[in-house]
Design a protein that fits this description.
This protein is α+β, with helices and mostly antiparallel strands. It has two domains: about 55 residues, Arc Repressor Mutant, subunit A; about 140 residues, Bactericidal permeability-increasing protein, domain 1 (Super Roll). About 35% of the residues lie in helices and about 20% in strands. It has eight helices and ten strands. Strands 5-4-6-7 form a four-stranded antiparallel β-sheet. It has a three-stranded antiparallel β-sheet with strand order 1-3-2. Strands 9-8-10 form a three-stranded antiparallel β-sheet, with helices on both faces. Helix 2 packs across helix 3 and helix 5 packs across helix 7. It is globular. The chain binds zinc ion (2 copies). The site of one zinc ion has 9 residues, from loops. One zinc ion binds next to loops.
Amino acid sequence: MNRKEKILEILREKKETSVKELSNIFGVSEMTIYRDVRELEQEGYIKRKHGAVLLNDRDESEALMVDTCPICEKPITRAYPYRITVEDAKVIETCCEHCGFLLHSRYEDKKVSAITYDFITENPISALNAWYVVGSSAVPCCSPSVIPFASKEDAEKFSKGFGGQVMSFIDAYNTIVNNMNINLKSCCHPQETVFRIDQLKKKS
Ligand SMILES: [Zn+2]
Ligand SMILES: [Zn+2]
Protein backbone atom coordinates (compact mmCIF):
# COMPACT_ATOMS: atom_id res chain seq x y z
CA MET A 1 0.00 0.00 0.00
CA ASN A 2 1.49 3.38 -0.90
CA ARG A 3 1.33 6.51 1.23
CA LYS A 4 -1.68 8.00 -0.58
CA GLU A 5 -3.67 4.82 -0.03
CA LYS A 6 -2.66 4.82 3.64
CA ILE A 7 -3.81 8.43 3.98
CA LEU A 8 -7.22 7.42 2.61
CA GLU A 9 -7.34 4.54 5.07
CA ILE A 10 -6.53 6.86 7.98
CA LEU A 11 -9.31 9.19 6.81
CA ARG A 12 -11.83 6.37 6.57
CA GLU A 13 -11.11 5.62 10.23
CA LYS A 14 -10.69 9.09 11.66
CA LYS A 15 -12.84 11.20 9.30
CA GLU A 16 -10.48 14.14 9.75
CA THR A 17 -6.75 14.78 9.90
CA SER A 18 -4.21 17.48 9.02
CA VAL A 19 -1.04 17.81 6.96
CA LYS A 20 0.96 18.26 10.19
CA GLU A 21 -0.49 15.13 11.77
CA LEU A 22 0.11 13.09 8.63
CA SER A 23 3.70 14.28 8.43
CA ASN A 24 4.22 13.02 12.01
CA ILE A 25 2.55 9.69 11.29
CA PHE A 26 4.64 9.00 8.19
CA GLY A 27 7.83 10.71 9.39
CA VAL A 28 8.15 12.76 6.20
CA SER A 29 8.10 16.51 5.58
CA GLU A 30 4.88 18.49 5.46
CA MET A 31 5.76 19.40 1.88
CA THR A 32 5.74 15.72 0.93
CA ILE A 33 2.36 15.22 2.59
CA TYR A 34 1.08 18.41 1.01
CA ARG A 35 1.92 17.00 -2.42
CA ASP A 36 0.03 13.75 -1.66
CA VAL A 37 -2.93 15.72 -0.35
CA ARG A 38 -2.99 17.96 -3.44
CA GLU A 39 -3.01 14.90 -5.68
CA LEU A 40 -5.74 13.17 -3.68
CA GLU A 41 -7.76 16.37 -3.82
CA GLN A 42 -7.34 16.67 -7.59
CA GLU A 43 -8.33 13.03 -7.95
CA GLY A 44 -11.52 13.82 -6.02
CA TYR A 45 -10.90 11.58 -2.99
CA ILE A 46 -10.51 14.27 -0.36
CA LYS A 47 -11.24 17.91 0.35
CA ARG A 48 -9.65 20.48 2.60
CA LYS A 49 -11.52 22.75 4.92
CA HIS A 50 -9.99 25.27 7.38
CA GLY A 51 -6.69 23.40 7.46
CA ALA A 52 -8.35 20.01 8.02
CA VAL A 53 -8.13 17.16 5.54
CA LEU A 54 -11.44 15.34 5.03
CA LEU A 55 -12.75 12.55 2.85
CA ASN A 56 -14.70 13.93 -0.09
CA ASP A 57 -18.21 12.80 0.60
CA ARG A 58 -19.51 12.42 -2.91
CA ASP A 59 -23.12 12.01 -1.79
CA GLU A 60 -23.09 15.60 -0.62
CA SER A 61 -21.40 16.95 -3.70
CA GLU A 62 -23.95 18.14 -6.22
CA ALA A 63 -21.35 18.70 -8.91
CA LEU A 64 -20.32 15.06 -8.76
CA MET A 65 -23.88 13.80 -8.43
CA VAL A 66 -24.73 14.97 -11.93
CA ASP A 67 -21.76 13.17 -13.51
CA THR A 68 -22.94 10.68 -16.07
CA CYS A 69 -21.11 7.79 -17.67
CA PRO A 70 -19.68 8.90 -21.04
CA ILE A 71 -20.45 5.45 -22.51
CA CYS A 72 -23.97 4.55 -21.29
CA GLU A 73 -25.04 7.97 -19.97
CA LYS A 74 -26.16 6.45 -16.71
CA PRO A 75 -25.56 8.66 -13.65
CA ILE A 76 -22.39 7.59 -11.87
CA THR A 77 -23.55 6.43 -8.46
CA ARG A 78 -20.58 4.39 -7.30
CA ALA A 79 -18.55 6.13 -4.61
CA TYR A 80 -15.32 5.24 -6.41
CA PRO A 81 -15.99 4.85 -10.12
CA TYR A 82 -13.66 3.30 -12.69
CA ARG A 83 -11.25 6.11 -13.48
CA ILE A 84 -9.08 6.49 -16.57
CA THR A 85 -6.32 9.09 -16.90
CA VAL A 86 -5.36 9.83 -20.50
CA GLU A 87 -1.89 11.20 -21.28
CA ASP A 88 -1.40 12.24 -17.60
CA ALA A 89 -4.03 14.92 -18.01
CA LYS A 90 -7.59 14.10 -18.86
CA VAL A 91 -9.41 12.13 -16.14
CA ILE A 92 -12.59 10.32 -17.14
CA GLU A 93 -14.88 8.25 -14.92
CA THR A 94 -17.32 5.57 -16.00
CA CYS A 95 -20.17 3.80 -14.21
CA CYS A 96 -18.33 0.46 -14.07
CA GLU A 97 -15.47 -1.61 -15.46
CA HIS A 98 -17.61 -2.68 -18.41
CA CYS A 99 -18.01 0.91 -19.62
CA GLY A 100 -14.44 1.67 -18.54
CA PHE A 101 -13.16 -0.93 -21.02
CA LEU A 102 -15.37 0.47 -23.79
CA LEU A 103 -13.93 3.89 -23.01
CA HIS A 104 -10.38 2.46 -23.18
CA SER A 105 -11.09 1.42 -26.76
CA ARG A 106 -11.25 5.10 -27.73
CA TYR A 107 -7.70 5.58 -26.43
CA GLU A 108 -5.93 2.43 -27.60
CA ASP A 109 -2.97 4.39 -28.98
CA LYS A 110 -2.66 6.72 -26.00
CA LYS A 111 -0.74 6.36 -22.75
CA VAL A 112 -3.34 5.74 -20.09
CA SER A 113 -3.57 4.66 -16.49
CA ALA A 114 -6.68 3.42 -14.76
CA ILE A 115 -7.80 2.80 -11.23
CA THR A 116 -10.43 0.37 -10.11
CA TYR A 117 -11.47 -1.01 -6.73
CA ASP A 118 -11.37 -4.52 -5.39
CA PHE A 119 -14.96 -5.78 -5.29
CA ILE A 120 -14.61 -7.10 -1.74
CA THR A 121 -12.15 -4.83 0.06
CA GLU A 122 -12.89 -1.71 -2.04
CA ASN A 123 -9.16 -0.97 -1.99
CA PRO A 124 -7.91 0.90 -5.05
CA ILE A 125 -5.93 -1.19 -7.53
CA SER A 126 -4.33 -0.46 -10.86
CA ALA A 127 -6.84 -1.66 -13.45
CA LEU A 128 -3.99 -3.18 -15.44
CA ASN A 129 -2.93 -5.43 -12.54
CA ALA A 130 -6.40 -6.45 -11.43
CA TRP A 131 -8.12 -9.78 -12.15
CA TYR A 132 -11.63 -9.67 -13.54
CA VAL A 133 -14.63 -11.98 -13.37
CA VAL A 134 -16.44 -11.42 -16.66
CA GLY A 135 -20.03 -12.44 -17.29
CA SER A 136 -20.95 -13.67 -13.81
CA SER A 137 -24.54 -13.80 -12.62
CA ALA A 138 -23.78 -10.86 -10.33
CA VAL A 139 -24.53 -7.75 -12.39
CA PRO A 140 -23.94 -4.69 -10.20
CA CYS A 141 -24.07 -2.34 -13.21
CA CYS A 142 -23.69 -3.07 -16.93
CA SER A 143 -24.01 -6.46 -18.59
CA PRO A 144 -21.97 -8.57 -19.18
CA SER A 145 -20.61 -7.63 -15.79
CA VAL A 146 -16.92 -7.11 -15.17
CA ILE A 147 -15.92 -7.41 -11.52
CA PRO A 148 -12.40 -6.50 -10.38
CA PHE A 149 -10.25 -8.20 -7.74
CA ALA A 150 -6.75 -7.50 -6.51
CA SER A 151 -5.94 -11.21 -6.31
CA LYS A 152 -6.57 -13.99 -8.80
CA GLU A 153 -7.47 -16.29 -5.92
CA ASP A 154 -10.34 -14.03 -4.82
CA ALA A 155 -11.55 -13.76 -8.42
CA GLU A 156 -11.56 -17.55 -8.73
CA LYS A 157 -13.47 -17.94 -5.47
CA PHE A 158 -16.02 -15.42 -6.67
CA SER A 159 -16.49 -17.13 -10.03
CA LYS A 160 -17.07 -20.46 -8.28
CA GLY A 161 -20.05 -18.88 -6.54
CA PHE A 162 -21.40 -16.59 -9.23
CA GLY A 163 -20.11 -18.01 -12.50
CA GLY A 164 -18.25 -16.03 -15.12
CA GLN A 165 -14.66 -16.33 -16.25
CA VAL A 166 -11.51 -15.09 -14.51
CA MET A 167 -9.45 -12.96 -16.85
CA SER A 168 -6.45 -10.65 -16.93
CA PHE A 169 -6.98 -7.03 -17.91
CA ILE A 170 -6.23 -7.46 -21.60
CA ASP A 171 -8.34 -10.63 -21.96
CA ALA A 172 -11.28 -9.01 -20.17
CA TYR A 173 -10.81 -5.91 -22.30
CA ASN A 174 -10.82 -7.90 -25.55
CA THR A 175 -13.88 -9.86 -24.43
CA ILE A 176 -15.92 -6.75 -23.66
CA VAL A 177 -14.78 -4.65 -26.60
CA ASN A 178 -15.18 -7.45 -29.14
CA ASN A 179 -18.60 -8.45 -27.87
CA MET A 180 -20.77 -7.07 -30.64
CA ASN A 181 -23.99 -7.99 -28.85
CA ILE A 182 -23.55 -5.42 -26.15
CA ASN A 183 -26.70 -3.43 -25.73
CA LEU A 184 -25.49 -0.15 -24.33
CA LYS A 185 -28.98 0.91 -23.36
CA SER A 186 -29.21 -2.06 -20.99
CA CYS A 187 -26.26 -0.52 -19.18
CA CYS A 188 -27.72 0.21 -16.02
CA HIS A 189 -19.95 2.48 -11.22
CA PRO A 190 -2.62 2.37 -5.92
CA GLN A 191 -0.15 2.21 -7.75
CA GLU A 192 -1.01 3.60 -11.11
CA THR A 193 0.61 1.87 -14.03
CA VAL A 194 0.88 3.67 -17.33
CA PHE A 195 0.17 1.44 -20.30
CA ARG A 196 -0.87 1.44 -23.94
CA ILE A 197 -3.45 -1.06 -25.05
CA ASP A 198 -2.09 -1.41 -28.59
CA GLN A 199 1.24 -2.55 -27.10
CA LEU A 200 -0.40 -4.99 -24.65
CA LYS A 201 -2.29 -6.53 -27.57
CA LYS A 202 0.99 -7.23 -29.37
CA LYS A 203 2.37 -9.02 -26.29
CA SER A 204 -0.71 -11.12 -25.58
ZN1 LIG B 1 -21.69 3.19 -18.21
ZN1 LIG C 1 -22.06 0.33 -15.88
